[in-house]
Amino acid sequence: MMGIGIVELVIVAVVGLVCVGVVVAMALAAMSMTVRGSGKPGPGDMMHCPGCGTPVAANDRYCSQCGRVLHPHTPDKPDRDDH
Fold first, then answer.
1. Residue 48 forms beta bridges with which residues?
2. Which of 79, 78, 56, 80 is nearest to 67 (CA)?
3. What is residue 5's DSSP assignment?
């Protein structure tokens, strides 16, 4: 009776690594969707200025190239209570 050969062990190892790689890729994709789906730009998110096309950080308020306002400031809470 012959045991498992080197070729079979290599095949099993490669299949195992591929499965681990797929799981890791899926987890990373799910994490990036969660960050993007939050509705608030993160510090590493990039976009382009609609005025001049310069790459800018998604949380920048002004374009560093042309000075265009990227996101008008809207406070999360009102400054005072009118009640």
1. 55
2. 56
3. -
46 or 81, which is more confident: 46
Please report which residue ranges of the chain form alpha helices under DSSP H: 6-36
Phi and psi (nearest 5°) for 62? -135, 150
Tell me which residue of 44, 41, 45 sits closest to 71, measured CA to CA. 41
What pTM was computed for the model? Answer: 0.37
Q: Could you report the per-residue pLDDT of 40-71, keeping only the tens digit for each?
A: 656 667 888 888 988 888 888 888 899 899 87
Instruction: Report whether pLDDT(80) > 50.
Output: yes
**CA 53 – CA 46 distance, rounded (Å):** 12
* 56, 63 Cβ separation under 8 angstroms: yes
> Which residue matches tokens 């800018």?
56
